[in-house]
Automatic annotation (TrEMBL):
Family indicated by similarity: Belongs to the citrate synthase family.
Name of the protein described by the UniProt record: Citrate synthase
GO biological process: tricarboxylic acid cycle
Organism: Plesiocystis pacifica SIR-1
Alphabetical UniProt keywords: Transferase, Tricarboxylic acid cycle
Active site (UniProt): H267, D323
High-level lineage: Bacteria, Pseudomonadati, Myxococcota, Polyangia, Nannocystales
């Protein structure tokens, strides 16, 4: 096989050079374009972070105003997309709908196929970031059998999203500022995470010069899985199943006997506490001050305490990841578990687009095409049906 290396799941293979996100897994460090995640979560906003990830630098005042204005002006989606939505059963999983509708959007924008044109790319990057909350909110309303609420372009990115989700009959609905800020911070924390499964999917599909909508549909499909972004939903289901603190020791024994995994724990790169989980844990208390404490919090805290003191988890360097505490916040805000991965996908679209754009701008990148080590049968002759046993 010449120089070919065997590296299942690409554990030790760098597939690209990237200047977007840095993770130091041993130290538990995460930086976007050099800026520590803690500083961005504390001082920035999601749209500013989106600009930073995509264009490399923090925007100045007028750049940010123009960027926010451009996003705000593309929040509406074509009416025909609603027909696609209506084709789903009312209880269809929200993430299944997102995957399909993102792919459907590609059919509305034939020009998005000109992926080598930077100005076309920019136009569709803006459209996607702007439309993700609208499609997501409509998936939510569809699940509930409630009428769709159209975007209100007077509101900010998260305020508009909350309005489309939660406004009922009264036109005076105002998003709670603590909840709105918490969602904005969660969006910042989820915006990018270098070459994870879904970003790699976006890059791989995009490397065939597929349009960004289909590339992101592929990325969302990857994110949907319970080992990736679907873990936030799986954590909540797990906490509910455990039910009370007294059942934790038996549950942990089951994990150690490899009957199941402790969802929201472990990471391919972090061999230390995930810095995002630390911020989210603190954020949860701010949200619970408004919504009331989530009764599942005590189970999560006790699980973490036991796991961080148990040799099975310590020796394997398994720590809480971003998905361990986020679901508790989402549930307290009023989201059903089936919607949690969508809340991950909205901000991660920015990371996927940044990775996709970087890949297309990199002269060293070609169509993604891993090799294999063939272990199948040697050459043999076709056997007619009458001679088969
Ligand atoms: N519970 C119990 N054991 C675990 C867990 C867990 N959550 N995660 C890893 N292990 C064990 C695993 O059994 C293996 O043990 P051994 O070497 O004795 O066979 C060892 O730790 C290494 O695990 P691995 O599966 O080789 O590690 P990986 O890098 O391939 O997988 C992971 C990373 C995130 C898929 C895995 O830790 C996992 O399944 N975690 C639970 C799901 C989850 O929370 N996913 C969200 C990840 S972070 C956000 C995101 O990506 O979306």
């Amino acid at each position: 096989f010449g120089l070919m290396l065997y590296d299942p799941a690409f554990k030790n293979t760098a597939s690209c050079r990237s200047a977007i996100t840095l993770i130091d897994g041993d130290k538990g460090i995460l930086r976007y374009r050099g800026y520590p995640i803690e500083q961005l979560a504390e001082q920035s906003t999601f749209l500013e972070v989106a600009y930073l990830l995509l264009w490399g630098e923090l925007p100045n005042e007028s750049e940010l105003a123009e960027w926010s204005d451009q996003i705000t002006n593309h929040t509406y989606v074509h009416q025909y997309l609603i027909r696609g939505m209506e084709g789903f059963k009312w209880d269809a999983h929200a993430m299944g709908k997102m995957v399909s509708l993102l792919g459907t959007l590609s059919t509305f924008y034939e020009d998005s196929k000109q992926v080598r044109d930077a100005s076309v790319r920019r136009e569709h990057i803006i459209k996607i970031i702007a439309k993700m909350p609208t499609i997501a909110a409509w998936c939510f309303r569809h699940m509930q059998g409630r009428p769709y609420i159209y975007p209100d372009n007077e509101l900010g990115y998260v305020g508009n999203f909350m309005n489309m989700l939660f406004r009922m009959a009264e036109p005076s609905y105002k998003p709670n500022p603590v909840i709105a800020r918490a969602l904005d911070v969660l969006f910042i924390l989820h915006a990018d995470h270098e070459q994870n499964c879904s970003a790699s999917a976006a890059r791989a599909v995009g490397s065939a010069e597929t349009d960004p909508y289909c590339s992101l549909a592929a990325a969302s499909a990857a994110l949907y899985g319970p080992l990736h972004g679907g873990a936030n939903e799986a954590v909540l289901r797990m906490l509910r199943e455990i039910g009370n603190v007294g059942n934790i020791p038996g549950f942990i024994e089951g994990v150690k006997n490899r009957e199941r995994r402790l969802m929201g724990f472990g990471h391919r790169v972090y061999k230390n506490y995930d810095p995002r989980a630390r911020i989210i844990k603190g954020l949860a208390h701010e949200v619970f001050a408004v919504t009331g404490k989530n009764p599942l919090l005590d189970i999560a805290l006790e699980l973490e305490k036991i796991a961080l003191d148990d040799d099975f988890f310590v020796s394997r360097k398994l720590y809480p990841n971003v998905d361990f505490y986020s679901g508790l916040i989402y549930q307290s805000i009023g989201f059903p578990v089936e919607f949690f991965p969508v809340l991950f996908a909205i901000p991660r679209a920015v990371g996927w687009l940044a990775q996709w754009q970087e890949m297309l701008s990199d002269a060293e990148q070609k169509i993604a095409r891993p090799r294999q080590i063939y272990v199948g049968a040697d050459k043999r002759d076709y056997v007619p049906m009458s001679e088969r046993g």
